[in-house]
């Protein structure tokens, strides 16, 4: 629809505002025309009465009637020297319906009477009171027919309306074409540039060239140019990283096979009778295991094939107790140094993918356990869960040594957020992706010398 466009709405607003301005001009103009018309009648009546007074009243009735017809009034009353005198008179066709005092009337009264005068019935007799010109008396009063006044007012109003309509249309047309030229056309050019860039972001020719003369539009074009340039560079970098990632994945795959073979050979070396070889074999096996783990983590992250969560309703506490028991078994002899606490209501139900949530919580609890074990001091790990009106908040709190500053700065960045020696820094990245797949958020609440706290927020399921 035309009036939903920028130019259409601008045209409509222009028409409305110009018409409003014309109305504000029209009403005072009509009031001023009526006042001038009536004052002219008073002046003519005064001239007629002065002509009669100059002849000492010795004029014929026919001439007196001609004077009244020329003035357009029925009779004239002139007050001179505190004496009220009927100077000229003729038969009045009806009673006086209204009296108007033209001696400095308020502007609001003039506008009201001016609009009302256009709707006065025919043969309506009105009385006018005014000040004589040239101080030829104290007051002049006439009666007249309002019909001619009404006709003149309507003719004047039609001329004003016709002229206003022409001005309105001309102004609206000029503004419409100006807006089309100065605003709409540059905006369409920006839109066309965005569409062309979306089709071929790698083509530098689709980047907009700012040339608008309007300051605001020029700034918008420059901002779009910077955005398109930065995005094109980011896309090129992403493409290169994708190619590099593919190469790394292939190298990791081949390297994993080579390291697996080396690990099998190292197992045989461990049974060597040479004491030096026997002491070095475990270190070699650990190094090979870390290298294999790094290759497998890199391959798993590079595939990016995590399935969408399969949501189901399940009790949260049994799952937490199961993963805690698994961590106790994994800790082995060191399990006595780590105390596991569970503060999850037995009746709490959660709508999520139980397998993916198990992986997320296992990653958080295992990281906490390994951090405490590395200090060789006792510590505790607590898993709590609480519900609000909109979310379920699961917290994993430990009393470990806290994360290093570099790990906190790159916590959810692949290959950069590892906090322990030999770690890949992918565990929390994958966990955060799984939580985002549920529409939730995984965040670090605190990490200092008193321990670390992670919070997992999931929206309540329907």
> Which spans have pLDDT < 50 for at least 5 consecutive residues?
none
Mean pLDDT: 80
Number of strands: 12
Helical segment count: 10
- In N-to-C order, the SSE pattern is HHEEEHEEHHHEHEEHEEHHEE
End-to-end distance:
40 Å
* Broad structural category: alpha+beta
Give the overall shape, derived from the CA principal axes: elongated
Proportion in helices:
55-70%
Major sheet: size, sense and barrel closure? Answer: 5 strands, mixed
Mind explaining what this structure looks like?
With 462 residues, the chain is α+β, with helices and mostly antiparallel strands. The chain has three domains: 2-170, no CATH class; 215-303; 312-459, Histidine kinase-like ATPase, C-terminal domain (Heat Shock Protein 90), CATH 3.30.565. It has ten helices and twelve strands. It has helices at residues 6-54, 61-71, 107-117, 147-199, 215-270, 275-303, 316-331, 354-375, 405-409, 427-437, and strands spanning 75-80, 83-88, 96-101, 125-130, 139-145, 312-315, 338-343, 349-352, 379-387, 391-398, 441-448, 451-459. Strands 2-1-5-4-3 form a five-stranded mixed sheet. A five-stranded mixed sheet has the order 7-9-10-12-11. Helix 7 (316-331) runs parallel beside helix 8. The longest helix is centred in the middle third of the chain and has 56 residues, at 215-270. The radius of gyration is 48 Å and the shape is elongated. The mean pLDDT is 80. Its EC number is 2.7.13.3. One of its GO terms (molecular function) is kinase activity. It comes from Pararhodobacter zhoushanensis. Keywords: ATP-binding, Coiled coil, Kinase, Membrane, Nucleotide-binding, Phosphoprotein, Transferase, Transmembrane, Transmembrane helix, Two-component regulatory system. It catalyses: ATP + protein L-histidine = ADP + protein N-phospho-L-histidine.
């Amino acid at each position: 629809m035309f009036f939903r466009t920028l130019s259409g709405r601008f045209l409509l607003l222009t028409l409305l505002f110009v018409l409003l301005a014309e109305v504000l001009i029209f009403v005072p103009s009509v009031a001023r025309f009526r006042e001038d018309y009536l004052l002219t009648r008073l002046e003519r009546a005064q001239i007629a009465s002065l002509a009669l007074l100059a002849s000492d009243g010795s004029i014929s009735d026919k001439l007196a009637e001609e004077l009244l017809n020329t003035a357009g009034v029925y009779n004239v009353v002139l007050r001179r020297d505190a004496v009220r005198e009927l100077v000229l008179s003729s038969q009045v066709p009806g009673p006086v319906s209204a009296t108007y005092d033209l001696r400095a009337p308020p502007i609001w009264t003039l506008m009201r009477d001016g609009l009302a005068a256009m709707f006065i019935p025919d043969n309506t007799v009105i009385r006018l009171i005014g000040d004589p010109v040239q101080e030829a008396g104290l007051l002049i009063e006439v009666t007249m027919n309002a019909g001619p006044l009404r006709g003149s007012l309507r003719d004047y109003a039609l001329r004003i309306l016709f002229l206003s309509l022409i001005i309105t249309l001309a102004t609206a047309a000029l503004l419409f074409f100006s807006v089309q030229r100065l605003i709409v056309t540059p905006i369409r050019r920006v839109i066309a540039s965005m569409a062309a860039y979306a089709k071929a972001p790698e083509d530098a020719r689709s980047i907009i060239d700012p040339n608008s003369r309007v300051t605001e539009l020029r700034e918008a074009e420059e901002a779009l140019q910077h955005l398109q340039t930065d995005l094109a560079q980011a896309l090129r970098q992403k493409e290169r990283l994708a190619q590099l990632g593919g190469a790394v994945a292939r190298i990791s795959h081949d390297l994993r096979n080579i390291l697996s073979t080396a690990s099998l050979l190292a197992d045989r070396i461990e049974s060597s009778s040479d004491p030096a070889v026997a002491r070095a074999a475990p270190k070699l096996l650990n190094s090979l295991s870390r290298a294999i783990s790094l290759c497998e983590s890199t391959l798993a992250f590079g595939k990016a094939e995590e399935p969408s969560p399969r949501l189901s309703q399940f009790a949260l506490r049994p799952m937490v107790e199961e993963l805690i028991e698994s961590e106790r078994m994994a800790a082995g002899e060191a399990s006595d140094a780590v105390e596991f606490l569970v503060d999850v209501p037995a009746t709490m139900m959660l709508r999520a993918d139980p397998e993916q949530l198990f992986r997320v919580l296992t990653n958080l609890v295992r990281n906490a356990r390994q951090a405490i074990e590395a200090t060789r001091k006792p510590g505790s790990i607590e898993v709590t869960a609480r519900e609000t009106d909109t979310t379920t908040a699961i917290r994993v709190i430990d009393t470990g040594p806290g994360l290093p500053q570099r790990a906190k700065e790159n916590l959810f960045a692949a290959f950069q957020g590892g906090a322990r020696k030999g770690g890949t820094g992918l565990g929390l990245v994958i966990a955060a992706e799984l939580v985002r797949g549920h529409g939730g958020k995984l965040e670090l609440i605190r990490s200092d010398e008193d321990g670390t706290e992670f919070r997992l927020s999931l929206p309540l399921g329907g």
